[in-house]
Amino acid sequence: MRRLFMILMLALSLLMLGAQTITAQTPAPAAPGDGNTCAAFTAEELTSAVERCPLETLEASSVCYANADAVITLLEGDALEQPGDTLPLADLSTIRTSEKGIAVIRLDAEDETEEAENPSRAYAIVIGEGVLFERADEELTDSFFISNTINDTCAETPEGIVLVVVGDLPFEFTVNGGIVRLDRTAFLRVVEPGNTLQIITTEGTVTLSPDSDFQVDVPAGLTSVVCLFQPTDLGVNADEPNQQIVEGCNWTEPRELTEVEFNYAVALQQVVDALLQVAPPESACANGGTTVVHTVRSGENLFRIARRYTTTVSAIVGVNSIANPNALSVGQQLTIECAIDTGAPTQGAAVPVAPPVVPPVAPPSTGF
C-alpha cells in the first residue's frame, strides 16, 4: 500500500511539473504597442509633414526636414534641428531616419527648371526606420547612395527611398552607382540578404541602365533587383559604409510583386499622394478616355488593373472609396474613370524570385 501511495505521489508530481513546463512555454498574448505590431502613418503625421515640407513650394536643389525622426547632417558636421528647416542640397552630407522618419529632397536644379519648356520636378523622399541617404559626390546633386534596415514584417511603415517625378519629362538619378530614369514614381530599398537593391515601380515606367545593352524597363506594378558589393566607405562621408552596384551584375527582368511587396508599394503610394496633395480625378478626361466598370477576377490586384486602363492605383482607390487596397474581392465592381483599355493582362500569381548572388570582392576605387 505504501509503495502504491509513493507511486501515485510520484506520478502526480510529474504531471504537475509537466503542466508547469507547458504553461511556461505558452507565450502570453501580445499587448498592444509592445513591438509586435506596427502602425501606419496617421493623417495627422502626414498633414504635419506636408505643412512643414510642401513639395509644391520646396525650392529646387534643397532639402527639408519633415519630422523629428529624421536626422539631417551637413557637410560641415552640423545638423538641422527643427522640423520644417531647409538647406541647400549642396550643403547636405547624410540623412538618417528612425521610426516614422520623413525627409524630402528636391533634386532638380533651378537652371534646368527654367530652361525646360515643360519642366519636371524630381524628388527623393526618405521614409521609414533605419534609412541612410548619402550624397555620392560634393559636385553632383542627383547622385547618392542608399541603405536601410530590412524589415518585411511591417508594410504599414515601409523603409526606403521614394523617387518622384512631377511633370512631362523623365529625370535621371544615379543610385548606388547605377543610372535610373524615371517618369513618375518608384520605390528603392535594400532587401534580404542585404546585398540586393530592389526597385518597385508604382506609377509610370522606370528605365534601368538606360541606353545600354543591358537596359531594363519596369512598368507600374513590377519590380527588378540588382546585386550590391559589400559595404565600403563611399560617398561624401567617409565614415558611412555604402554599397555600390556590382559591375557585370545586371538588373533582372521585371517580375510581378509578392504580397508583401504589393502591400509596401500601396502604403508608399498613399504617403506620396498625401505629400503631393493629389486632388480627386477631374470629371473631364483630358486623355480621351471613358468611364468603365471592371469586375475583379481571381489573381488581380490594383496595380495590374491600373496598368491595363492607363490610370493609377490612387485614382481607382479614390473613385471607389476603397478602404483597404490590398483586399479586393472576386466579383467586386470597380468604376474606373478616364480609362483607356490597353488589354494588358491583369491576372497572374506573384512569384518570389531569389536575389542575385554577390561576388565576394571589393568595389573598384571611385575616388570619392
Q: How are the SSEs ordered, and which strands pair?
A:
Elements: H1 2-25, H2 43-52, E1 62-65, E2 70-74, E3 86-88, E4 92-97, E5 101-106, H3 110-115, E6 121-128, E7 131-135, E8 143-148, E9 160-166, E10 171-175, E11 178-182, E12 185-191, E13 196-203, E14 205-208, E15 216-219, E16 222-227, E17 232-233, E18 241-242, E19 255-256, H4 259-276, E20 290-295, H5 302-308, H6 313-320, E21 333-339
Parallel strand pairs: 8-10
Antiparallel strand pairs: 1-3, 1-5, 2-4, 4-7, 5-6, 6-9, 7-8, 9-12, 10-11, 11-14, 12-13, 13-16, 14-15, 16-19, 17-18, 20-21
The proportion of strand residues reads: 25-35%
User: What strand order characterises the main sheet?
Assistant: 3-1-5-6-9-12-13-16-19
The assigned structural class equals alpha+beta
User: What is the number of strand segments?
Assistant: 21
- Specify Rg, calculated over alpha carbons: 25 Å
Give an overview in words.
This protein has 368 residues and is an alpha+beta fold. The chain has helices at residues 2-25, 43-52, 110-115, 259-276, 302-308, 313-320; strands spanning 62-65, 70-74, 86-88, 92-97, 101-106, 121-128, 131-135, 143-148, 160-166, 171-175, 178-182, 185-191, 196-203, 205-208, 216-219, 222-227, 232-233, 241-242, 255-256, 290-295, 333-339. Strand 10 and strand 11 form a beta hairpin. Helix 2 (43-52) crosses helix 4 (259-276). It is globular, with a radius of gyration of 25 Å. The model is unreliable at 1-36 and 350-355 (pLDDT under 50).
